[in-house]
Amino acid sequence: MSPDELRRAGRAAVDAAVDHLAGIRDRPVWQPVPASDADWLADQALPEAGRPLDALVADVRARVLPHPMGNGHPRFFGWVNSPPSPAGVLVEPLAAALNPSCAGGDHAGALLERTVVRWLAELVGFPHVPGGGLLTSGASMATISGLAAARQRAGREDGWDVREEGLHGRPPMVLYVSAEGHSCLRKAAELLGLGHRQVRVVPVDARFRLDVAALRSRLAQDLAAGLRPFAVAASAGTVNTGAVDPLDAIADVAAEHGLWFHVDGAYGALGAGDDGLARADSVALDPHKWLGVPVDCGCVLLRDPALARDAFSLVPAYLRDESASGLGWFSEYGPEQTRPFRALRAWATMAHLGRAGIADLVDRTVALAHRLAKLIDRSDDFELLAPVTTSIVAFRHRPGPTDQGLDELNRAIPAAVQRRGRAFLTGTRLGGTDALRACILNPATTEDDLSILLDEIRAVAR
Ligand SMILES: Cc1ncc(COP(=O)(O)O)c(C=O)c1O
Question: How many Å apart are CA 218 and CA 179, to the nearest integer?
């Protein structure tokens, strides 16, 4: 390949990306992929001979870019998926041009990750020590990393080594999560061999926040039964309603009982505004959510990184690095060995926005969520199902005076709205009823977009 061929195709690729981003508002939010392109996307044969780069860019323009998931659009309100930051899009090819493994070593990729992790800690008000965190594929992996460190610490405190012995023959370790905790907590507990039976699901209060009195009472029961409570996971922004658990009160319980205090701030850490987060032993947060860093980019912040290193470090002879700093390699603090250059897209996103720009992004989207809540409150045919604390609004459509059939109606609404292509939202179950939820992460969303969302719901319900 000649540099000129790459330069020419690269310019065409940049044009395709910019045309895509610039035209998003004028296209449907999402549409099912038509059969001809779906076949091309899913069922291609491996070509015998290679093809030129500009032909590949043409394919991407014609067959890939027209079929987005929808999360770049200002009327995408589904799950927790943001549009990509322009700075993150810009630097992606540059990260690929270097293509390092950020397992560790003395190169830009590994060094820049130190800055990014420190910036993230600063942004969410978490005390940072050198080596106090690493980037991950997402909050799921961040959670596994944090809870693995917790499990290792608990074993050490009891005089044994989980890595050496496994969990056999020891009192079962118990993890406490809220009923509104994300499913990644259960997955982590299962993967770490704790068993789902050892995950205590603590009820929530009327605002969908973990009930601290219930946590205390479950703990007392488990201690009386001879079990080994070892960690509690709180949420700084739940996925259903954006609720922030009473972090300080939970930190008090953790401190009293020697529990590891994990905070799931995957979605909400940036907007949680709760000082209790600073008391966590580990925090999972996702720059690929509110910040808009292109997927993937999660992060685990660690109060005492030596505990994560104790849980993961394994340095065979072929990975020894005599010139590494005292912190060693990132791969000693988590499960991944070869690690992508996530730091460049995260750095570019934060450097482009600055602290003020990030605060604006959060404030703007939270204000829009309050605006949507107000529209819902003022209407006769919608009702709020939870208070708005971050940028998620949980609500339901209630076109008539009766509750009959409301679950079926609200369960059917998201897919019907999605198919029309003018807005995109998803649903959930909340407090025993089917709910709609709108998660606002796009700085380009306007108040008109919120009204269109409600009108779309009305239209499909009719
Ligand atoms: C509150 C919360 N926690 C954890 C996760 C899992 O994060 P990831 O998908 O990045 O692994 C999500 C994802 O939406 C989330 O919203």
Answer: 13
Q: Which of 143, 178, 184 to mutate to test the pocket of ligand 1 (most atoms within 8 A of CB)?
A: 184
Q: Which pLDDT score, from 0 to 100, does residue 196 have?
A: 96
Which pLDDT tens digit goes with each residue over 100-119?
A: 999 999 999 999 999 999 99
CA distance 252 to 260: 11
173-178 and 228-235 as β-strands: parallel, antiparallel, unpaired? parallel
The average confidence (pLDDT) of the chain is: 97
Rounded-to-integer distance, Cα 443 and Cα 158, Å = 49
Count the helices and strands in the chain (H runs, E runs): 14, 11
Report pLDDT for 238: 98
Residue type, 321: D
Q: Which two tokens stand for residue 164?
A: 């050496």
Contact 30, 421 (CB under 8 A): yes
Q: What count of other Cβ atoms lies within 10 Å of the Cβ of residue 458?
A: 15
> Is residue 116 a contact partner of residue 350, using CB atoms and an 8 Å limit?
yes
CA of 12 to the centre of ligand 1 (A): 34
At 1 the pLDDT is 80
- How far is ligand 1, taken at its centre, from the CA of residue 287, in Å? 11
**Closest C-alpha residue for ligand 1 atom 12:** 266
How far apart are the C-alpha atoms of 186 and 41, rounded to whole Å? 33
183-191 and 139-157 helices, crossing angle to 10°: 50
Tokens, residue 209: 């926040």
CA distances from residue 266 to 174, 236, 278 in whole angstroms, order as listed = 22, 8, 15
Mutate to test the pocket of ligand 1, among 286, 293, 440 (most ligand atoms within 8 A of CB): 286
CA distance 327 to 193: 28
> What is the three-class DSSP state of 210?
strand
Q: Is 181 helix (H, G, I), strand (E, B) or coil?
A: coil
Element (H, E) at 458: helix 447-461
Q: At residue 376, does pLDDT exceed 90?
A: yes
